[in-house]
């Protein structure tokens, strides 16, 4: 497609759905986790695909990297996700243990951004998370070569077949590098879109175990 046509296509795409929910910031709870739970339930009820999917942004030598993961749980201030500690994102978190999460739900015109320090959860928590994964996901994690160059698809087939066999022979087997991480939220921002661009933004900031709230300009 010519660049000019691509620009025209992009300009013609709709930005917001036909209707969006309201957002009364004065009625927002004092803890962002409570508001997230409310918004998540609403998104699921509204048919938002995979509302628990989020963009995880990390830093590698000053360069940002982003990819989509699944939120596993929200416990206290910890927004939990999992990956291999030997993966690119695991290595980035080891070197720079801070990250940002972004949830975007276009069908309801909502976005949530969270940022904070990241730490690994206990080995027991990581093992329980791994064993709760489907068989294929456990086999893939056991291979443990994420993002490495694949010279021959046959290598992948052989490695997965071996990993499947290992899981079937030992259902309690846990990949040694599998890690459940917790992003300890320092800030959380909730954004509600508006067709007239009167967007509503509410930012939570944490000091110790206390949250403060501020309404921001769109």
Structure at a glance:
With 218 residues, the protein is α+β, with helices and mostly antiparallel strands. The chain has helices at residues 3-12, 32-45, 88-95, 123-131, 135-143, 153-169, and strands at 53-60, 63-70, 73-75, 78-84, 98-105, 110-120, 178-192, 200-207, 210-216.
What features would you describe in this structure?
This protein is of the alpha+beta class and 218 residues long. The chain has one domain: Roll (Pnp Oxidase, Chain A), CATH 2.30.110. It has six helices and nine strands. The chain has helices at residues 3-12, 32-45, 88-95, 123-131, 135-143, 153-169, and strands at residues 53-60, 63-70, 73-75, 78-84, 98-105, 110-120, 178-192, 200-207, 210-216. Strands 1, 2, 3, 4, 5, 6, 7, 8 and 9 form a nine-stranded antiparallel β-sheet that branches. Strand 5 and strand 6 form a beta hairpin. Helix 5 (135-143) packs across helix 6. The longest helix is centred in the C-terminal third of the chain and has 17 residues, at 153-169. The chain is globular, with a radius of gyration of 20 Å. The two termini are 34 Å apart. The mean pLDDT is 94.
For this structure, what is the CATH class? Mainly Beta
Strand content: 25-35%
Q: Describe the biggest sheet?
A: 9 strands, antiparallel
Number of domains in the coordinates?
Answer: 1
- Percent in helix: 25-40%
CATH H-level homologous superfamily name: Electron Transport, Fmn-binding Protein, Chain A
CATH architecture identity: Roll
**Rg of Cα set:** 20 Å
The low-pLDDT segments are none
Number of helices: 6
SSE string, helices as H and strands as E: HHEEEEHEEHHHEEE
Termini separation comes to 34 Å
Mean pLDDT rating: 94
């Amino acid at each position: 497609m010519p660049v000019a046509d691509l620009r025209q296509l992009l300009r013609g795409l709709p930005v917001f759905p036909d209707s969006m929910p309201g957002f009364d910031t004065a009625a927002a709870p004092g803890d962002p986790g409570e508001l997230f739970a409310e918004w998540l339930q609403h998104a699921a009820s509204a048919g938002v695909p995979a509302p628990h999917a989020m963009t995880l942004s990390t830093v590698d030598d000053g360069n940002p990297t982003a990819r989509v993961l699944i939120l596993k749980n929200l416990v206290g201030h910890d927004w939990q996700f999992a990956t291999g500690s030997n993966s690119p994102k695991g290595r980035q978190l080891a070197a720079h243990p801070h990250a940002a999460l972004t949830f975007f739900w276009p069908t309801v015109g909502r976005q949530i951004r969270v940022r904070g320090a990241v730490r690994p959860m206990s080995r027991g928590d990581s093992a329980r998370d791994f064993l709760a994964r489907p068989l294929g996901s456990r086999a893939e994690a056991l291979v443990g070569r994420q993002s490495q160059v694949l010279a021959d698809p046959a290598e992948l087939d052989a490695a997965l077949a071996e990993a499947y066999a290992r899981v079937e022979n030992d259902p309690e087997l846990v990949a040694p590098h599998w890690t459940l991480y917790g992003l300890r939220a320092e800030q959380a921002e909730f954004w509600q879109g508006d067709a007239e661009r009167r967007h509503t933004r509410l930012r939570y900031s944490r000091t110790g175990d206390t949250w403060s709230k501020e309404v921001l300009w769109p």
